[in-house]
Amino acid sequence: xxxxxxxxLIFDHFAGKSTPMQKRLIxxxxxxxxxxxxxxxxLVEWEHQSPQYLPELDQKLDxxxxxxxENPARPVPETALSSDSTSPVSRSIWLKWLVAATLLLSCGLxxxxxxxxxxxxxxxxxxxxxxxxxxEDGTRVAMNSNSSLRVPxxxxxSKTREVLLKGEANFSVTHTIDHxxxxxxxxxxxxVVVLGTEFTVYSRQRGSKVVLNKGKVQLRYQEGNARKEVxxxxxxxxxxxxxxxxxxxxxxxxxxxxxxAAHRFVFEGTSLSELTHLFExxxxxxxxxxxxxxxxxxxxxxxxxxSAEELLQxxxxxANLRYTQSNDTITITYHE
Length: 336
Known about the structure:
There is one protein chain. By secondary structure, this protein is of the alpha+beta class. It folds into 3 domains: 7-118, no CATH class; 119-256, Jelly Rolls, CATH 2.60.120.1440; 263-334, Phage tail protein beta-alpha-beta fold. It has helices at 7-14, 20-29, 33-49, 57-70, 78-82, 88-113, 115-119, 272-283, 292-295, 308-319; strands at 120-124, 131-134, 140-143, 148-152, 162-172, 182-185, 191-194, 198-204, 207-214, 217-223, 226-232, 236-240, 246-250, 264-271, 286-289, 298-304, 321-326, 329-334. The strands form 3 sheets. Strands 1, 2, 3, 4, 5, 6, 7, 8, 9, 10, 11, 12 and 13 form a 13-stranded mixed sheet that branches.
């Protein structure tokens, strides 16, 4: 039977008890991303169960490094190894301390190199993919294409409810008994602070948008050197440009800004020039529009589409246009 990696084997490894063969087995096992996820979970569990390894870690590591500097490696005579001058007990203690220090150093380097993986659990979507999930506090999140959401692994829902968003997502936040705030942190210092409500956040390189469906939202953002705040009411739409300048207006149908969750795309006077951003964000495609007058053509209506090709076909048919595609670039022209 092939040897398998179990929690008990990993716990022994953390405690410095694994054999060279077991270490090689663990190294091979860690090649899989899912196994690395499990490895981090077991590491936290082991640390909680093994407090004897936790006190004064920095001091122990400093002492170990100082010892190595003061005692560089040099050949040791065999007679010294077999000498009775060093008792088995003292040799055992020294070896255990050395193994523990080496383990701490290894874990420290591993943790530093992968600190984001250790601190946050990241949910991601690729182009033309949407995803729905429920966080530990009961909050429901619908993620749009080409987006990522980082959620703290430890203490989320009890000590903190802060998440980090890149891309676009709709949040339906659960109100907690202790009225704990839920904070979405996005690009350019944008923060959305709520207690329990439903809203959509768009955060891309070209700017940000926040649309409030229900409840109340406090928006914090950076405009130049000034930190500003604005309170949103249902139906409010705030748009921030790359310089952090904010504009507020009302929208009659805030739910349309999250219609993508049902693969529905709603256009209310959207120009073809603005349409290029949608295809780049959601599908990773570049849109080239022939003619300045065509760029100003506006689109209205609701279109159901599962792919970029379906959406393009529906839009060009409705506006009497045509398109051609070369690799990842699409050119839109008037229909001849």
